[in-house]
Amino acid sequence: MQQRTLGPFEVSAIGFGCMSLSHGYGPGPDEDSAIRLLNQALDAGHTLLDTAALYGYGQNESLLGKAVMHRRDEFVLASKCGIFRNATGEREINGRPEVLKKTCEDSLRRLKTEVIDLYYLHRWDKQVPIEESVGALADLVDAGKIRALGLSEVSAQTLRRAHAEHPISAVQSEYSLWTREPEIAVLQACKDIGAALVAFSPLARGFLTGSLENPQQLAENDLRRSMPRFSSQNYPANLKLLDEYQRIAREAGCSMGQLALAWLLAQDEHVIPIPGTGNSAHLQENSQGAGIELSPELLHRLDDLINPRTVQGARYNAATLLEIDTERF
Q: What are the residue boundaries of the NADP-dependent oxidoreductase domain, all occurrences included (predicted)?
């Protein structure tokens, strides 16, 4: 697979997002299947594995610790801090330095490794100056426990403040044909400072694969049930966009999912999508998306078809929108 630069690392142009193996989209695969899938991801050439303390409240990190640490020199390991389950069992955003440092120690133990290559602040805790949180992570770099810093779901302004405190190697944001907010400012800000834009949910949480016809059939604990775009009011209108999208995929000679990944890779050299899946066939399909080149004409048609004007509904509900710092259309 072609390579792209992520801070001090060279990684596969398409990474592997591990969240769905333990978190977010209803029941994931059983442990043995998940272990096989993670090793298949490495075999397919994915050299960036992305997890977080939040995913399964530690279960995802523990899964990686069991599944792939015998192949530690084959991949760049990314994890995240700043969201965790507190003492009362509730999800909490907390960017205090002492909390971030403890979270890192817990992650290292679960991951069974001495160092995390790329460590993100999963959300900026707006009660704590970004400089304080980043300063704590810089201390972990000095201690040899992490190698590079990243931020997730931040604005260009917050990114520049953080980068002035310590170099930021990556910003992870939702980015796909139907989520274009990074194009407002963060995509260029990353390029200006030499950071990668790591695109999570590059397949629009399954929408751009064409496989999700009825969100009402999703598991009760699937996070998409709380997202306005997947509501019964908005999803039927969004679904109509896929007829022409499927035609474009046929013209490009690829699957709908591969088309979404190829579009992202064409946006700029510092964009690195991290699709996730619990399905071996989908994993292989996604890995081949890096080899697809789209003509300027097809890229223009895609931009005209799926964009902020044509997609119905916000990407998050009102409560979640308050938690993030990204620019909005």
A: 13-306
Residues 6 or more apart whose Cβ sits within 8 Å of residue 292? 252, 253, 254, 258, 259, 261, 262
Length of the chain: 329
Neighbours of 279 (CB within 10 A): 14
Match 């303390």 to its residue by tokens. 53
- φ, ψ of residue 270 in degrees (nearest 5): -95, 10
Of 25, 55, 120, 235, catalytic: 55
Compute CA 281 distance to the chain's CA centroid, rounded to the nearest angstrom. Answer: 20
Please state at what angle helix 130-142 crosses helix 156-165, rounded to 10 degrees: 40
Amino acid at residue number 175: Y
- Catalytic, 120? Answer no
Residue 59 has pLDDT above 90, yes or no: yes
Query: Mind listing the pLDDT tens digit for each residue in 282-321?
Result: 999 999 999 999 999 999 999 999 999 999 999 999 999 9
Distance CA 210, CA 249 (A): 11
Q: What Å distances lie between residue 236 and 180, 213, 233, 256, CA to CA?
A: 20, 9, 7, 18
Q: How far apart are CA 156 and CA 327, in angstroms?
A: 8
Where do the H-state alpha helices sit in the chain? 31-43, 59-67, 97-111, 130-142, 156-165, 186-193, 235-239, 241-252, 256-267, 280-287, 296-305, 318-321
Considering the domain 3-205+265-292, what is its CATH architecture?
Alpha-Beta Barrel (3.20)
- Supply the pLDDT for residue 265: 98
Contacts of 77 (CB under 8 A, 6+ apart): 49, 51, 64, 111, 113, 116, 117, 118
- What integer best gives the mean pLDDT of the chain? 96
Q: What residues contact 211, with CB distance under 8 A and at least 6 apart? A: none
* Separation of first and last alpha carbons in the chain: 34
